[in-house]
Amino acid sequence: MSIIQAKNIYKVYNETHVPVHALNGVDLEIEKGEFTAIVGPSGSGKTTLLNIIGGLDLPTEGDIFIEGTNLKTLSSRQLIDFRLHNIGFVFQAYNLIPVLTALENTEFILELQGVSKKEREKRAMEILKTVDIADKRDHKPGQLSGGQQQRVAVARALVSQPKYIIADEPTANLDSKSTEELLTLMKKMNEKFQTTFVFATHDQRVMDKARRIITIEDGKAVKDETFER
Amino acid sequence: MKSIFKIAWRSLWRNRRRTLLTAASVVLSLTLALFMRSMQFGSYEQMIQAGVNQVGDLQVHDSGYWENQSLDRAFFESKNMDETFKDVPGIKNVLPGLETFSLASYGKQTKGILVSGIDPSLQNRQTNLAEKIIKGKYLTKPDEVLIGDQMAKFLKIDIGDSLVLLGQGYRGLTAYGIYKVAGIFHLPSLQMNTSLLYMSLTDAQNFVYPYQAGLLTDVSVFLKSQSDIDNVKKALEEKLGKKYEVIPWQTMLSDILQTIKVDNVSGQIMLLILYVIAAFGIFSTILMMTMEKRKQYAVMISVGMQRSKLIAVSVVETFIVAFLGILAGLIIATPILFYLHYNPIPMTGDMAKMYLEFNIEPILPFSIKAHVFLSQTFIVLGLSLLSALYPIIYLSRFNVLNAFRH
Asked: A6 has which bridge partners?
């Protein structure tokens, strides 16, 4: 069964009363454990699609199902709760909470989920070790490099073992070495935990690692390729 | 909850200088407000105290006397009443009095006056009347009177001269007598200086009703503590019964209370200006903090934090700044106000003279009553929390995607 099912998705933004058609009937299914990249030129609609898949936005038309749950039927509060328990996020600009340490940032999701302090510290430390940043546990984001911050962001996304992880241009702000390390790490997590990853990216290095590449152009999925990697 | 406080606390200290400046604006406004209100309420308390020293915290009359102040509503002092005053706890002392209107004549001049019969020693202890004598001496012998300087001027009478009084006595009698002017006083009120005559209570009783001793129109009751006024009033009313009325100072000094009310409005306007300035200081910081953290809010909501928790973070941030400012403000202002309360600033020159004329000690008093501190603290806290409305409204309408885009 697919984890993510997008059926005939349309998204129209009514900015300054001029309708902008960001998505024009996208159909998509993503299975558990996939390592998928959504690619396309700027303005093609890949971030809009990612936002809809991530439950941050809702389609104007069509339905988005996550393991059978139609996100359109959820209230704003339920949607936030759904994201908390099902989806991990990795953002382009890392977007860690600046006042919390690496450990606290990683624990944050677990704390929102109501996990006990002892349990969340244990799980957060395990994942920080996995992403090889445990020695920086007490550092705040400002004291970490971009690559280190993105590792913490990955740890934060993974710690609650979500059904899938959404990553919008996760390598855009990283140098080559950090990009390579991050991609290797995410691939490792994908293989180790069978975590589903969905990226929106321009980065060829990400595309080179992806086992599936969906190309979006003018709000439509124009190509869907799978690779043995 | 712990994480809400942790995020709020750390967010505040991320920009230490801004937080301290905001707290400083709270400190300044609270300190200034406390000084203003303490001084204002201090002077009100002083005015009230001066008035209460004259009339008493409570006055006991025959029922209906306050509305219709006629000698027909006088009463005879009784053992029962004396015992009641001894029995009711909280009473410091009582001052019996007898007041009536009369004509005063000397030579070719005649004038309508108010005769006030007093217990000379008790009255002096309570009101320092002897100190107001500007010519002659205080009451020491029978058939002596004290008159105001304006009355003396009008009647062209002086110390040692004999004054004829003629008026209506109790129960339709004609009251008359000849009295020697022992002293001339000067009180703050022109009306009192023109129309008031003091004589001993015994002389006054003999003047209006020589056939039975102990006639009174009022008994002023002075309390150990003004906070007991309601209890004492209730106890007196219960014990004395419906034949008597017990009037509190608030009714007797309604004109002073009215003056205070008017003056208080001007103080409140000044405070309002101060509060508006302080509120803008706090609000601008909250606004900056909110705008600065748009992206952080977007991330937090994205990863699953409910808006209500984010709102709680903002409210806690505001509360912490306000609390720190209030705490520092109280720490600064309280010892100074306590010092000034116990060591009031003495006034000199014309201002001091004016105060003395109104029978008020020439000092700048400061109030340390709890309500001064509590009211200002809660107002400043309320203003601060009012500023938190902005992030509450902002976050409840917050659009995550817009925040990411900008």
From this structure: A28, A64
* Chain A: residues touching B (Cβ < 8 Å): 51, 54, 56-57, 77, 80-81, 83-85, 88-89, 91, 93, 95, 97-100, 104, 108-109, 111-113, 156
User: Looking at residue A62, what is its pLDDT?
Assistant: 93
Work out how many domains chain A is built from and give that number.
Answer: 1
SS3 B34: helix
C-alpha separations of B326 from B118, B279, B281, B298, B387 in Å? 51, 13, 14, 32, 15
| In-domain check, residue A65 | no
DSSP string, B131-160: GGEEEE----STTEEEEEHHHHHHHT--TT
Q: Is residue A7 domain-resident?
A: no
The yes-or-no verdict on residue B378 having pLDDT over 80 is yes
- Sign of CA pseudo-dihedral B308, B309, B312, B314: negative
The pLDDT value given to residue A136: 94
Picking from B65, B94, B51, B42, the residue whose alpha carbon sits closest to that of residue B232 is B94
In a domain, A142, yes or no: yes
Contact B304 A84 (CB under 8 A): yes
Question: Number of CB pairs < 8 Å for A and B?
Answer: 55
Query: Token pair of B296, please?
Result: 């952080």
| Chain-centroid distance, C-alpha B127 | 18
Question: Which residues of chain B have a CB within 8 Å of the CB of A156?
Answer: 303
Overall pTM > 0.90: no
What's the confidence (pLDDT) of residue B195?
92
Longest dimension (CA), chain A: 52
Q: Percentage of chain B with pLDDT > 70?
A: 98
Q: Which long-range contacts (CB under 8 A, 24 or more apart) does B246-249 make?
A: B246/B58, B246/B59, B246/B60, B247/B58, B247/B59, B247/B60, B247/B61, B247/B66, B248/B57, B248/B58, B249/B48, B249/B51, B249/B52, B249/B55, B249/B56, B249/B57, B249/B58
- The verdict on a CB contact (< 8 Å) between B303 and A89 is yes
How far apart (Å, rounded) are the C-alpha atoms in residues B74 and B102? 16
Name chain A contacts of B317, Cβ cutoff 8 Å: none
Q: Return the CATH number at A81.
A: 3.40.50.300
A108: nearest Cα among A93, A95, A124, A94: A124
- Confidence label for A193 from pLDDT (cuts 50, 70 and 90): confident
Strand order in the sheet with A69-70: A18-31, A2-15, A61-66, A69-70
Asked if residue A3 belongs to a domain, the reply is: no
